[in-house]
């Protein structure tokens, strides 16, 4: 088995992994032994985008060769290995968010049970997007999959812990948002002056605990 | 802050921001690259005053700015050509202490760059002084009354050129595009069809992207594309079929198929398109 790699303009290569576990394994392998030609490595649910710093054919060709070798190596190892090496972050949450009661009603659970299922879900950061430090946490208990608000809030406070569709998230900064708010954490997930600025990175394991 | 080396913002025009070469390397954390929309024009302005190409300067949108240089400074103005009082387009000019540079409206193009010898030395965020309009990272857009520190000129190269030939602003701009990565979501020949007709630049274009109005490329694949990494120059086609060419502040990931990617050499052309302009695509084929 080989992975299809698509060209993205003059500088980009898009590896089709077909699934998040392989995206995260390839992302981890690329970061562990980073080719100098990989200026950006952006995992997605079914792809990993790698971008060279300049539009040099030689650099992109070298990157392409390295990617091919790395893909083969990653395909040859158990995906669980990369997952085991990933860091785990525990995030304390004060539940009682503005949408907790409504989510309970929609899912036919009590608010207590919503919290129990949220804290029992073994989350893994799939990818980041929407805003700096906004991590899409995969692994949400399927019973808690609820749609976004029909009308997004104009401002969701920093540290809001929320769910929408198959994902959970912690709002890294105040922003408009349509996710359903279950609670709030004082854990800082985004600090532009820190290195790295984001507590949650692709592959990070996350557990929420009630405080 | 050295009181002698300050830029005082007196007027900003529509949108004036500090921009440098942006903050690459953080896309996986949800951070757009940002940086000057027309990178080459900023690089040229910097070269004219002896700065490294990636130093921070000021990006103006449709001109209209007035700046006072408290300590005096070497200044160069590039990009969309404007009437400049107190300075010059495409040439370094010495602005005496307290002197003002007034930039009028561009005759063509959208974005004009002002570089000052030593660079604009506001506090960097994640290694860059660029204001990112999408995420809000970096220094806020400029407003009258702002005071911007200027970095030391010590150790910089001497300005090497007295004048740089102005770039052309063609009345029929063309964006060369490589097909893919998701051209297979569209009908056979859809990319060629896009290249056969002009597109109009919409007024809701901004630093995130140039929004175009014209015939929709015919999509053959239904359903949603899982979110994937995006690049500058990507031509994304949302469900309404109206293409968006991504510029500096584009989101690092997106969920609409990218039918083609504008070549690096033409990103500056895209960044200089103004609402009402007409633009064409030209298809390139990858050599490897």
What is the topological layout?
The complex is a heterodimer of chains A (211) and B (288).
Chain A: E1 5-8, E2 12-16, H1 20-32, E3 40-43, E4 47-51, H2 57-76, H3 79-85, E5 88-95, H4 100-107, H5 111-120, E6 123-128, E7 135-138, E8 153-156, E9 160-164, E10 167-170, E11 175-177, E12 180-184, E13 205-210
Parallel strand pairs in A: 5-13
Antiparallel strand pairs in A: 1-2, 2-4, 3-4, 5-12, 6-7, 6-13, 8-11, 9-10, 9-12
Helix pairs in contact in A: 1-2, 1-3, 4-5
Chain B: E1 6-12, E2 15-19, H1 39-48, E3 57-61, E4 65-69, E5 73-79, E6 84-85, E7 92-95, E8 99-103, E9 111-116, E10 147-149, E11 174-179, H2 190-194, E12 199-201, E13 209-213, E14 228-229, E15 234-236, E16 244-246, E17 253-254, E18 258-262, H3 267-271, E19 278-283
Parallel strand pairs in B: 11-19
Antiparallel strand pairs in B: 1-4, 1-10, 2-3, 3-9, 4-8, 5-7, 5-9, 6-8, 11-18, 12-13, 12-19, 13-16, 14-17, 15-16, 15-18
Question: What is the gist of this entry?
Answer:
Chain A has 211 residues and is of the alpha+beta class.
Describe the structure.
- The complex is a heterodimer of chains A (211) and B (288).
- By secondary structure, chain A is an alpha+beta fold.
- Chain A contains 5 helices and 13 strands.
- Chain A has 2 domains: 5-83, 2-Layer Sandwich (Gyrase A, domain 2), CATH 3.30.1360; 86-210, Beta Barrel (Cyclophilin).
- In chain A, strand 6 and strand 7 (135-138) form a beta hairpin.
- In chain A, helix 1 (20-32) packs across helix 2 and helix 4 (100-107) packs across helix 5.
- Helices cover 7% and strands 29% of the residues of chain B.
- Chain B has helices at 39-48, 190-194, 267-271, and strands at 6-12, 15-19, 57-61, 65-69, 73-79, 84-85, 92-95, 99-103, 111-116, 147-149, 174-179, 199-201, 209-213, 228-229, 234-236, 244-246, 253-254, 258-262, 278-283.
- A 7-stranded mixed β-barrel of chain B has the order 11-18-15-16-13-12-19. In chain B, strands 6-8-4-1-10 form a 5-stranded antiparallel beta sheet, with no helix packed on it. Chain B has a 5-stranded antiparallel beta sheet with strand order 2-3-9-5-7, covered by helices on one side.
- The longest helix of chain B has 10 residues, at 39-48.
- Chain B is elongated, with a radius of gyration of 20 Å.
- The chains are: A alpha+beta (211), B mainly beta (288).
- The A-B interface holds A 6-12, 14, 27, 39-49, 51, 53, 55, 57, 61, 127-135, 192-193, 196-198, 201-202 and B 24-31, 125-126, 135, 137, 178, 180-181, 226-231, 233-234, 251-253, 258, 261-264, 286-288.
- Chain A: Keywords: ATP-binding, Hydrolase, Nucleotide-binding.
- Chain A: One of its GO terms (molecular function) is ATP binding.
- Chain A: InterPro entries: CT_C_D, Cyclophilin-like_dom_sf, PxpB.
- Chain A: Pfam families: CT_C_D (PF02682).
